[in-house]
Design goal:
Layout: E1 4-9, H1 17-25, E2 28-31, H2 56-71, E3 73-79, E4 85-90, E5 97-102, E6 113-120, E7 122-127, H3 129-136, E8 145-147, H4 152-160, H5 172-182, H6 186-190, E9 196-199, E10 212-216, E11 221-230, H7 236-239, H8 242-245, E12 250-256, E13 261-263, E14 266-270, H9 271-280, H10 283-292
Parallel strand pairs: 1-3, 11-12, 12-14
Antiparallel strand pairs: 1-8, 2-6, 3-4, 4-7, 5-6, 9-10, 10-11, 13-14
Helix pairs in contact: 5-9, 9-10
């Protein structure tokens, strides 16, 4: 499978609105590292496309751009001032090219010619804000241009128009939401799981040891951890549930395992069962899956 990349065209690019607008309309992605180790920056931006002429982040970013051009891959790009974003495909054997624009005002060089290093994006699709939210919510927090393994399947689906169909189509944050929603269903009851009545905290990132904290129908606390990892002996994530079990509530460990079981008082439940019961065999869950993966326009 081709690699997937994320690139942001933010204020750090320091180009004017017209330059950004042209990049957007012409379906191009670009980086702007104007200083190399050989030229005189006071006389203009570097025109070198050789990564060896740069140092630090500039060298690694330009090297990565050449790798994408050579091998091809899928891209999700955001552009300052544009809602949503853009997905597309860079064909193998593409060339990194110079793209002429104008500096913005961040570095007090407004109006000077800016020489960006750019790639042409094919099969592009402009995403609305609601389509892009499932990508922007989990986009890398640092870096201008990077490999993005986390959402590869989702970006590919948006470019090709082929709806994803597997558990690995869901990023970790959506796997957590899936398990939370599943705990509300009758299928969860049939499988012997406690049924969720209320959540007590936002799902996932805000909590250190658990991903789901809620109250069951019988008034007991449910504490759950969700991971795409395979169950292993002495699993450190499973052990993090121990203090919550001591408080008398139900503790659930959703992971990749062959069957439901109990370990040290914790319910260990296959993540694949959740996906099959909720996303494949439940009308409401199927709708959730289409919406969550951004493929609802294909329905």
């Amino acid at each position: 499978m081709k690699n997937t990349y994320f690139i942001r065209h933010s204020s750090a690019l320091d180009v004017d609105e017209d330059t950004l607008d042209r990049l957007w309309k012409e379906d191009r992605i670009a980086i702007h590292y104007p200083q190399d180790t050989n030229g005189d920056f006071s006389r203009g931006d570097s025109r070198s496309l050789n990564p060896s002429d740069y140092i630090g982040h500039a060298r690694s970013a330009l090297k990565r751009l050449h790798e994408l051009a050579r091998d091809g891959g899928y891209v999700f790009a955001t552009y300052r001032g544009k809602t949503g974003g853009k997905v597309g495909y860079v064909s193998p054997g593409s060339s990194v090219e110079l793209f002429r624009g104008s500096w913005g005002g961040k570095n007090k060089l407004q109006g000077r010619e800016a020489m960006l290093k750019a790639l042409q994006v094919r099969q592009s699709r402009n995403l609305t804000a609601e389509e892009a939210i499932f990508l922007t919510a989990v986009q890398p927090r640092q870096g201008t241009f990077c490999r993005w393994r986390k959402v590869g399947q989702r970006v590919i689906a948006l470019v090709t128009g082929t709806p994803p169909a597997g558990l690995d189509s869901l990023t970790p944050d959506l796997q957590e939401v899936m398990c939370m929603e599943y705990l509300r269903t009758e299928n969860a009851r049939i499988r012997g799981l406690p049924v969720l009545r209320h959540t007590l905290m936002p799902v996932g990132r805000t909590m250190k040891d658990i991903d789901i904290l809620g109250v069951s129908e019988n008034g007991k606390i449910i504490s759950a951890q969700v991971t795409f990892k395979r169950l292993s002996v002495g699993d450190s994530k499973l052990r993090k549930l121990d203090p919550y079990r001591l408080q008398g509530g139900a503790t659930i460990y959703f992971c990749r395992c062959d069957q439901a079981q109990e370990i040290n008082g914790h319910i260990v439940f296959p993540l694949q069962h959740v996906f099959d019961d909720f996303c494949m065999n439940n009308d409401s869950g199927q709708e959730w899956f289409r919406l969550a993966t951004g493929t609802y326009r294909e329905v």
